Amino acid sequence: MATIAVPLGGQAEGHQADAVQRPALSEYLRWSVDHKIIGVQYGVASFLFFIIGGAMAMLIRLELWTPELDVMVSGAAYNSLFTMHGTVMIFLFIIPMWAAFGNFVVPLQLGAKDMAFPWLNAFAFWLIPPAAIVVLLGYFVTPAEAGWTSYPPLSTLFSGDGQTLWALGAHLLGISSIMGSINFIVTIFNMRPPQMTLWRMPLLCWAVLATSIIAVMATPFLAGALTLLLLDRVAGTTFFDAAGGGDVLLWQNIFWFYSHPAVYIMVLPGMGVLSEVLSVHSRKPVFGYRMVGLSSMGIAFVGFTVWAHHMFTSLQPELRIPFMITTMIIAVPTGIKMFSWLGTIWGGKIRFTSAMLFALGFMSMFVIGGITGVMLAALPFDIHVHDTYFVVSHFHFVLFGGSVFAIYAALYHWFPKITGRMMNERLGRIHFAFTYFGFLFTFFPMHIVGMLGMPRRVAVYDEAFANWNQLISFSAFVLGFSTFIVIYNIIRSYYRGPVAGANPWRALTLEWATTSPPPVTNFADDPIPFEDPYGYGTEASVAYLNAVEAAFDGRENRTILD
Amino acid sequence: MAELTANQLHAVAHDDHGHLSEEEKNDNLKLGVWLYLASEIVIFSIMIVGYILLRINEPDVVAHAHEQLGVGLVTANTFVLLASSYFMVMGLRAMQQGNRAGMLRWIGATALGGTVFLIGQYIEYSELAHLGIVLGYSESQWSTLGMRFYAPTFFHGAHVFVGVIWALEVLRRGAQGRYDHNPIGIEMFGLYWHFVDVVWIMLFTLIYLV
Amino acid sequence: MEDNRSNTPSISPAAIVVAAVFIVVSAIGINWFTSFVPVVLPAQASAESKSVDELFYILVIIGGVVFFLIQGMLLISVIFFRARGDDRSDGPTYHGNPLLELVWTIIPSLVVVFLAVVSFNVWSQNSEPKAAVNMINGEEIAIKVTGARYAWTHTYETGQLDPDGDPIVINSGDALHTYIGQNVDLELRTQDVIHSYWVPAMRVKQDLLPGNPATGGRPTEIRFTPIRVDGAEYPATYPIVCAELCGDGHGRMRGTVVVYEDEQQFLEQFYDPAIHAILNPPADPVLRGEIIIQEYVCHSCHVLDSLGWTSRTGPSLNGIADRAGERVPGQSAEEYIVTSVWDAAAFVVPGYTEQMAQFGPDQPDTYQMDAEQLYSIVAYLCTQGEQSDCDLENSTTAIPEAIQTVFGLEVDITFGQGDDEATDAEV
Description:
Strand content of chain A: under 5%
Largest sheet of chain A: none
Radius of gyration of chain C: 31 Å
Structural class of chain A: mainly alpha
CATH architecture of chain A: Up-down Bundle
Order of helices and strands of chain A: HHHHHHHHHHHHHHHH
Largest interface: A-C, 95 and 92 residues
Number of helices of chain C: 11
Distance between the termini of chain A: 28 Å
Order of helices and strands of chain C: HHHHEEEEEEEEEEEEHHEEHHHHH
CATH class of chain A: Mainly Alpha
Shape of chain C: elongated
Radius of gyration of chain A: 23 Å
Number of strands of chain A: 0
CATH architecture of the largest domain in chain C: Orthogonal Bundle
Number of domains of chain C: 3
Helix content of chain C: 25-40%
Distance between the termini of chain C: 93 Å
Shape of chain A: globular
Strand content of chain C: 15-25%
Strand order of the largest sheet of chain C: 5-4-3-7-10
CATH superfamily of chain A: Cytochrome c oxidase-like, subunit I domain
Oligomer: heterotrimer
Number of helices of chain A: 16
């Protein structure tokens, strides 16, 4: 039997059973260059934006309860509502939320002491609050009401000053995202300890790497497009105004050249989380580790070639076919991931923790988004459902059924590491039930109203869809309610949750080989990763995990099954 | 599983926890600057493509502009910028040879080159304004050219401006002796400055020559 | 790896039973789901809709197989592979199976190729240009659609001339009239932002793109051929919807496709009466105004009970004549309405934003309005109220004077009057 050298955590000795050493709350309100503090700052800030964006969604559903305009004072007010909902959810919730988990977890998983550029890391985060204020300030002038896609000329010649603020804010957020991503790439390439080879890297790191490469290459397209939009709005240029020699489709091309890859910016980290959670909680290695890692790269690459499927009804007809084909191709690497996850849990010893439930929920819901994605790629059918509720449904299955379920899985999975305390599993299960069914019944019927003829982004609609919309709105309120459960759970667990110990899930990746929460320098030295980040089931792995436990907790480890 | 020992555990021990060796920091910074420049390329290419589309769609406008505008000033300006890149290389080499005074002179010359370039660009802009080529939409025959010309060149000029400021900061730090042992700061500035130079060569070729 | 072979889960008979049951259930489920196809899609009212729906059917079947396969495997995993009781052991160390990975790379690739081929076929079939489009009375005519915030305007360029030698153009407002078997080919133009012309029952959609007016705009094209829908009563109507966000009234930007049973019915019920009405306008400016105002996009933003308009984007026109005299000091009721139609920005009613389009003789397409049309519209609006501020007794002089005062234009009020008797006799 091999002897195991355990990577040392910071304060292994002097550890008290019922106390958790963690930063004072005031630390989180200050400028800090510690990646763990920044991770939590990102997380809390984006969760606040999730609540704001969610409240907007509730108002949207309230308005759509009846076919007439009754809650909102005008159609324009409704337009600004879903514009802000989209902007907040995408730019202020999902993208920074992945920066939160990436920041907290990736350096730990790599065995690094911090990100490559701690100062830049903090700066990227602190760009977000002012950017958010700039975007939301629009409400005090004429709010942006051209949708988050902001198509000119609606967003240039026919919108008020809020649109300028929107573009400025989005610009800042793009810069923040580029800086964060450069940091991730450099960290992942350069900050790994010697034993952490690329092929030993946990899959979350692979996913964050792929995501960051996309963000660095794609976000500048958004920056460029927004620059031109701002020039059109304030400097009198006519890049997007046909009357002055411009072209409205130029915006759509550049915008979607960013925004389609941006979908993968929002989903790939979730896929990385899924690989972690499924493997740990079913006690079985990730099936086809290399293919899962490489498929992230494949998705990232193909993701750059599909943008014009968002323009199927505006693009010249002869250019549509190539984009149909590339879009369908992207289903293949996505399918590889899906089957590999199934292969991962198949035959495992599944623990139904809340994290696992949300991971399974992701698979169950994301597959619907994937199927409708292929349906939407099929050009003739897309022509019918383009810009309808079918599309709204599709991208919510991808971004809520995908990203948000993964965010919740990540939250339940890493909360013990972040705070040192466990979340309440019973509340977690209730939260899952409300989220899963609320989500399913909110978004599945949207496919049908879309196909029947309800376009998206309308405050008033044909009375024929009234019953469907009431079902959707009711389910949306259930879904909205589910958020309160998790908020309560987070606050309660932060103070009163059971002490987690270093490695409550008995996971093999390095973030669990230090105290919870980790000390400022993460590890006493360069830690040595276990030979296989997902090598569950071997005697060596059991010995390793026992050694980790002995080193940090000095007692039987507590898991949720206790 | 291989037997791991305490020695292996401390394979790469650091003097102070949480801090990187100079070499690691240099590698990080260089990779970071490269990635940053990669993202800059994208923004420039959007504007360049905008100009190329204009050339393809409205060759008359561009031909007309070429007829009326000399390339004398801008050629001189290009030369100044290229020379400043050379000064930049010499500055870095001087510092690597431990010649701080030489570095300060060369980088000073770089900053000067950038400033001269900006002055040249200002003069060119005012000449163009007299011809009626302006950024915003106008009724003149130039209206489609203006924005597509000014956007990339002004954006580039802004980068030169930032570069000049950066050069001054390098001079300040250099004078304090901060690069005596590790000229990474000069190297990073050099990468940026060469990038700005390369972009200009592309713009110059596309806008003035072709 | 070798050591762990014994840990690999062997497939228990129970799992096989569950799998078998599941396959049966899924087959029934897919069959059941596809039976909903007619329910979840609108009526198949065009030749295109048939092939699009067949494609949808194929997509649903393949998607259904994938859906049930993955949900089924999830379900089986959840049931059979859960850690029971206090089982704290790990699963088998099974890292993957290259053959299996190859299989689930290749099979989806093949499926994708198949779907691409099928979609391509449907697409080429549907987008193939048709001969003999917009046939009316044996001739091809141009049917144009203009999208302007927030209404569709359909115009038929009949190719006929009126007695003055001007071309007769039928403006059917937000309704497109067609008949079964007509190869419809519409030229779409937008007057402001991007709109999207969608007829769900026809399964067609096309964006309207702003172009440079100086070079003729940027027209796009949409084609479909109405077919008979079993059980429908003709003329049948289907909604037209704007599918691209265009602003405040986007949701109200709707229209109607009226499909007649055959060309005969189309001519009798729509085309011929429309031409007749153009040739024989009513002499009464109020009646004329009532027709003309409905050809413009006014209905997309204003409430007007007498015409059934409901949109609240702009101020209500109910009783407008009662208020018109008091709105702007120094302006008579006629002058105020005249100003408001052509130059709405001159006075914005409190509580509303300045967003109404400019109308006038020099405005493009659907915003073009000459002084005579303005005269008729104002005459009509002057009747909207109980105690009109307008000088109704002398409207034939008061309104032209107002137009003269505000815009300096002469109005030829004799327009249409010569046809008085003919109108009375024939209508």
